[in-house]
Amino acid sequence: MGVRRRAGLFILQVNPILCDGFGHCGELAPELVKMDEWGYPIINPEPVPFTNTGAHESARYAERGCPRQALRIRKISDK
Amino acid sequence: MIALATPYLWYTTRATGIVALILFTLVVSLGTLVANRIGGTIVGRFEINELHRSLSIVAMIFLVLHILTTVLDNYVSTGLISAFIPMTSAYKRVAITFGAVAFDLIVAVWISSLLKLRVANSTWRFIHWFSWIGFATALVHAYMSGTDARSGVGLLLVGACGGVVVLAALWRFIGRPTRAAGRTALSPLARVKAPTNKRPVSRPFASSARPTNKRGR
């Protein structure tokens, strides 16, 4: 599971039905996720390039660390 | 299987069994901390979760050592098959059966967690509930088959492990959050100050730097 340098952009997507507001994503990926006042995530809607390895790594930690598996990294086909 | 004149395999079996019991007590207790959403200010919630995961791997290693040394040792006649299938051990049949059931349940929980990103969350949760039954059967196995478990420090240890997990189970039920319990270090209500009338910012990322996808992509 090495980090491959890929072209393109990604966004971290939350499934609001699965999300139970554990708050792990906000701790694991603070550059992508802000918490609202009830502890649910507000995710940066701007696509982030994969070359931003710090953000990509945080996103992968958040995806793996979510206790409800409510997060997915989605690749955006860049134009 | 292996003819060993020394009793050290047997001692290793007993020692790793005790260590595995303590480790699984910690793993179950830490799991209730994650589920009831402890942490978020001094210790991160994700840190408790990571500790829960890491310790479970250590506990699995000790459990495998415990089983391997039992199988390899010829002091007791317990084959590899008895580690998985109930009622196949000539030695302490019922006690080893509890261990086999516990091992099967723990392996199921472990594999489902390894596949966590690939299975539905409801499936994973359903399987994860069986860790309680797995611990209970492991505790019965420890009490019934443990050479040291029915007197002195061993009995005290088994009782303590059982007591801790019973308390954890009670607290898991009583202290379960009815809804999202926010207040992590990053949530605005983490450190409750005087209430303000300021409306919450509707677009928290509006002012943050945008990735350079306009010009350079």
Descriptive key words:
heterodimer; A: 79 residues; alpha+beta; Alpha-Beta Plaits; three-stranded antiparallel sheet; two-stranded antiparallel sheet; 2 helices; globular; B: 217 residues; mainly alpha; Four Helix Bundle (Hemerythrin (Met), subunit A); 5 helices; disordered C terminus
Topology overview:
The complex is a heterodimer of chains A (79) and B (217).
Chain A: E1 9-14, H1 24-28, E2 33-35, E3 41-43, E4 48-49, H2 53-65, E5 71-76
Antiparallel strand pairs in A: 1-4, 1-5, 2-3
Chain B: H1 8-35, H2 45-72, H3 93-114, H4 121-145, H5 152-174
Helix pairs in contact in B: 1-2, 1-4, 1-5, 3-4, 4-5
Structural account:
The complex is a heterodimer of chains A (79) and B (217). Chain A has one domain: Alpha-Beta Plaits, CATH 3.30.70.20. Chain A is built from two helices and five strands; from the N terminus they run βαβββαβ. Chain A has helices spanning 24-28, 53-65; strands spanning 9-14, 33-35, 41-43, 48-49, 71-76. In chain A, a hairpin with a 5-residue loop joins strand 2 (33-35) and strand 3. The termini of chain A are far apart. By secondary structure, chain B is an all-alpha fold. Chain B has one domain: Four Helix Bundle (Hemerythrin (Met), subunit A). The N and C termini of chain B lie far apart (65 Å). The interface between A and B is medium-sized, with 35 and 32 residues.
